[in-house]
From TrEMBL:
Active site feature: E211
Catalysed reactions, as listed in the record: N-succinyl-L-glutamate + H2O = L-glutamate + succinate
InterPro entries referenced in this protein's UniProt entry, alphabetically: AspA/AstE_fam (IPR050178), AstE_AspA_cat (IPR055438), Aste_AspA_hybrid_dom (IPR007036), SuccinylGlu_desuccinylase (IPR016681)
Metabolic or biological pathway: Amino-acid degradation; L-arginine degradation via AST pathway; L-glutamate and succinate from L-arginine: step 5/5
The protein's name in its UniProt record: Succinylglutamate desuccinylase
Pfam family, one: AstE_AspA_hybrid
HAMAP family, per the entry: Arg_catab_AstE
Biological function: Transforms N(2)-succinylglutamate into succinate and glutamate.
Keyword Transcription appears in the UniProt entry: no
GO MF term list: succinylglutamate desuccinylase activity
Amino acid sequence: MQDFLQQTLSGRPPAQRQGSNAHLHWQWHDEGILSLTPHTPTQQALVLSAGIHGNETAPVEILNLLLTPLLQGEKPLAVRLLVILGNPAALRSGKRYQHYDINRLFGGRWQQVADVPEAQRALQLEQALENFWCECLDHEIRWHLDLHTAIRGSWHTRFGVMPLNSQPWPADFLHWLAAAELEALVFHRAPGGTFTHFSCEHYAAASCTLELGKALPFGENDLTQFSGVQRALAALLYGEALPPVRETPRHYRVAQQITRHGEQFVLHMGPETLNFTAFPQGTLLAEEGERRYYVQQAREYVLFPNPNVAPGLRAGLMLVEESEQTQALEL
């Protein structure tokens, strides 16, 4: 296999489903699911996923650029690796999803919409992760990096979303995220149906959803915006030196969630509203019938505002910056 992305977009299985080179053994498990095992023992098991949303192409292109030298035997592999292109059908169509957002269906939530193809894909991806993590040795470090782009532009071009975690985040994981030049980290305080939450909750993996710029079609991405992420991923995969940390990411935590319940839902933000736009206390954010969403803290920042989600799904998150919250408590 020379080009995993093109092979996946073709919609056909490869002529050869496994193979080896001087550094590794690779195995094609199913559409968009590929494992690579180095010939020498490693200390880390890594899941790299992208294309969970089919219109988010920059991370898919970055992932393929990093994967190709491994498959061609040009680079050594320093981790046991599972690579996933999450929604091949949506990637081929250039749509976010075909029927339902896969990244709301993990952790068994796919059972609620079992008649749509995304439900079967979510189950398939859960099983792929289970098989991969169950092969882990006790000493192996488990990481899952899920690469996305946002629907909207953002005041932070590169940021990470951290799932709810009952354990402290490993220092080396946070250091890697900083070295990848992420400008901000957002910490969830509630469980969710995302791929990274599934890895963290069920398999104790250090996991993060990396948001890299704005969703654009294949060929229209300026990958130079994400050179820091690409260098940090290369260091992780090839065993090279990690780039130095230039700046520590700003930390935000989720203060409240805006949920759309039905057709009456109105989000009081235009399409030009950027992620991490700040709103002062008391601002009316959204309404639906008698339900109202207001800014509750002195200042809250919006993330992922989207009035067009299916009923019952998140239409936006409101964040507080942890340093600001600390300062307010001290005053």
